[in-house]
Design brief:
CATH architecture of the largest domain: 3-Layer(aba) Sandwich
Protein name: Transketolase
Radius of gyration: 28 Å
Family: Belongs to the transketolase family.
Subunit structure: Homodimer.
Largest sheet: 6 strands, parallel
Cofactor: thiamine diphosphate; Mg(2+)
Number of domains: 3
EC number: 2.2.1.1
Oligomer: single chain
CATH class of the largest domain: Alpha Beta
Strand content: 5-15%
CATH superfamily of the largest domain: Thiamin diphosphate (ThDP)-binding fold, Pyr/PP domains
Shape: elongated
Number of helices: 25
């Protein structure tokens, strides 16, 4: 507390270490955001010395508190904490190389660079929503393993920018609804954003807003360690999620930039740093922290040592199954899911597979953005998670697509397998969170139904056209568009084995024919394969590539053309990225010796040149759809066997 001595130094003085390291690192890099670390350093110091449960010698201790810096531009505050408290393999040299290639101290926190960084943050509000997922995960673990094994809290540090983003409204609403009393939001209430005073754009009362969401709220002086510690102490016993607004001055301690947007996103300059250090008794050369003060920081975790030792004993007494429960989900698909004997929408096929997963796997958490029945995600195995019972396996996210995806990321970071769905066109709302799942390499499964103009009468607002191309362009995500039940099952098998990136499974609203019969070999694992061979494979006129509901259309075209004595090979491409990873030789095998390469997909042509080349023939649409029954739309856009066959016959004659 204010004036409380940690040996010969107060919390206020200890917080100066964060200021020195942050100011020097940003200045050396000639790039960065010093304002938040300087303004919030006292809050961070109180948290580290009095409340945060951590062990720098075991950074992945299961029962550690999760610390999420949602306002990721203030990354130097987090890096200062990691260095000062003695985390293994986070040396001062990383801080001296802040924002430089190969430094763990990246411009914004990246969890793949250092294991103690809980999540990759930067796009504002994403970390806050991740923290809601982490808090839900903690409740799940607590329900399964008990309070002695899981009683950690999740702290999310947010700024004004985080609270302006729509994703925060979505995520905070869910947190309040679920009464996540293990979630504590720490708001750096400095009233400044990049353009100047926050009042230029914001006039709402955050405390009233968060209270309406179902939070316990408080506002205190963020430069008074007595008030800081009291607010954090009160939050420990809250029956609801907590929101604490710490009134601070951005760039605290500088001469002319304190309280100004000028300290937000630019180096302070040597004069300001000299002024800052002139009021710090132990300040010296760049990055200098006296050894006795560094030792105090390294001892901050020792108040957790007894609990850490006790937890190890409690954990050792668990059964092997309970111990395994906290690890990454290792989920396999049951083999006895019946293959349909008649046409079935792939969203329905997916739903039957997910029901099997939910019946047999307790690390799966499924949910939907208010479209559970349409997405095929609700079933007899669903048990809804609610504020009174977290033992379930299904979350009603409401119409909150972006927060849903970010919460799923938080669940995946906590070693659960999240599966969540909406209509494919609404993936636009989810893109920032999906992108971060790909950037972090999280094994999340996004289920996207109603995948094309096959949506029909809902019209162009609900018919995805460019979405396949745009997500195929995103690095480190596998986008699957299966053609029938067997391909759906194969795509799930692939996705469940994948631990290094997310998967998106794109599914039809309309019924599709069952093309394949089940086999022991997963034909989809190479991303593409010959689903129907030409009757003269050594002399192919057309090799037609297709995906999803259009594979059966391609096979209808094959019948028409082969009746005209043309030789036609059909290749199904359930996953572009997987196919292209096989290399050119495999693609050439699929293309065969065809005189012409063709693609059929009820979507944009963008990206298909990587499969059929620039001279290839594409049947799809590069315009928005229209309001009409699906079969009428397919005919209108030239996507039926008669129209395609006639065009290919005419092309052959030329």
């Amino acid at each position: 507390m204010n004036g409380t001595k940690k040996q010969n130094y107060s919390l206020d003085q200890l917080s100066d270490c964060i200021k020195i390291l942050s100011a020097d690192a940003v200045e050396k890099a000639k790039s960065g955001h010093p304002g938040l670390p300087l303004g919030f350093s006292q809050v961070m110091t109180c948290l580290a010395f009095e409340f945060l449960k951590f062990n720098p010698h075991d950074s992945k201790w299961f029962n550690r508190d999760r610390l999420v810096l949602s306002a990721g531009h203030g990354s130097m505050m987090l890096y200062s904490f990691l260095y000062l408290t003695g985390y293994k393999d986070f040396p001062l040299n990383d801080i001296k190389n802040f924002r430089q290639l190969y430094s763990k101290a990246a411009g914004h926190p990246e969890n793949h660079l250092f294991e103690a960084i809980e999540t990759t943050t930067g796009p504002l509000g994403q970390g806050l929503a991740n923290s809601v997922g982490m808090a839900i995960a903690a409740k799940k673990y607590q329900a399964e393993l008990g309070d002695n094994i899981c009683n950690y809290k999740t702290y999310a540090i947010v700024g004004d920018g985080c609270l302006m983003e729509g994703i925060s409204y979505e995520a905070l609403s869910i947190a309040g609804h679920l009464k996540l009393n293990n979630l504590i939001i720490l708001f750096d209430d400095n009233g400044i954003s990049i353009d100047g005073k926050v009042s230029l754009a914001v006039s709402e009362n955050h405390l009233m807003k968060l209270e309406a969401f179902g939070f316990n709220v408080a506002s205190v002086d963020g430069h008074d360690t007595t008030q800081i510690c009291q607010a954090l102490s009160d939050a420990q016993l809250s029956d609801k999620p907590s929101f604490i607004a710490f009134k601070t001055k951005i760039g605290k301690g500088t001469k002319d930039k304190e309280g100004s947007e000028k300290s937000h996103g630019s180096p302070l300059g040597p004069d300001e740093i000299q002024h800052l250090k002139s009021n710090i008794s132990f300040a010296g050369e760049e990055f200098f922290i006296p050894e006795d003060i560094k030792q105090l920081w390294e001892q901050a975790w020792l108040r957790n040592q007894a609990e850490y030792s006790s937890w190890q004993k409690e954990f050792a007494a668990l059964s092997s199954a309970q111990k395994a429960y906290i690890n990454k989900a290792k989920i396999t698909l049951q083999k006895d899911i019946p293959t349909p004997t008649k046409p079935e929408a792939t969203r329905v096929s997916s739903g039957r597979i997910i029901e099997s997963l939910m019946q047999n796997e307790n690390k799966t958490i499924v949910g939907s953005a208010d479209l559970a029945s349409s997405n095929g995600l609700t079933n007899q195995a669903c048990k809804v998670i609610n504020s009174n019972d977290f033992s379930g396996n299904f979350i009603h996210y409401g119409v909150r697509e972006n927060a849903m995806a970010a919460i799923m990321n938080g669940l995946a970071l906590s070693n659960f397998l999240p599966i969540g769905g909406t209509f494919f066109v609404f993936s636009d709302y989810m893109r920032p969170s999906i992108r971060l799942a790909a950037l972090m390499g999280l094994p999340v499964i996004f289920v996207m139904t109603h995948d094309s103009i096959g949506v029909g009468e809902d019209g162009p607002t609900h018919q995805p056209i460019e979405h396949l191309a745009s997500f195929r362009a995103m690095p480190n995500i596998d986008v699957f568009r299966p053609a029938d039940f067997i391909e759906v099952k194969e795509c799930y098998e692939i996705a469940l084995k994948n631990t290094t990136n997310p998967s998106m499974i794109v599914l039809s609203r309309q019924n599709v024919s069952q093309i394949r019969i089940d086999s022991d070999k997963n034909q989809s694992e190479k991303g593409g394969y010959i689903i129907s061979e030409a009757h003269k494979p050594k002399s192919i006129d057309f090799t037609i590539f297709s995906t999803g509901s259009e594979v059966s259309l391609a096979m209808e075209v094959q019948k028409v053309l082969e009746a005209q004595d043309l030789s036609v090979r059909i290749c199904s491409i359930p996953c572009f990225s997987t196919l292209l990873r096989q290399g050119k030789n495999y693609l050439h095998e699929l293309q065969g010796n065809a005189k012409d390469l063709v693609a059929i997909e009820a979507a944009s042509s963008f990206g298909w040149s990587s499969i059929i080349g620039l001279e290839g023939i594409f049947f799809g649409l590069d315009t928005f759809g229209a309001s009409a029954p699906a079969e009428k739309l397919y005919e209108h856009y030239g996507l039926n066997s008669s129209i395609i066959s006639q065009k290919l016959l005419s092309h052959k004659k030329t």
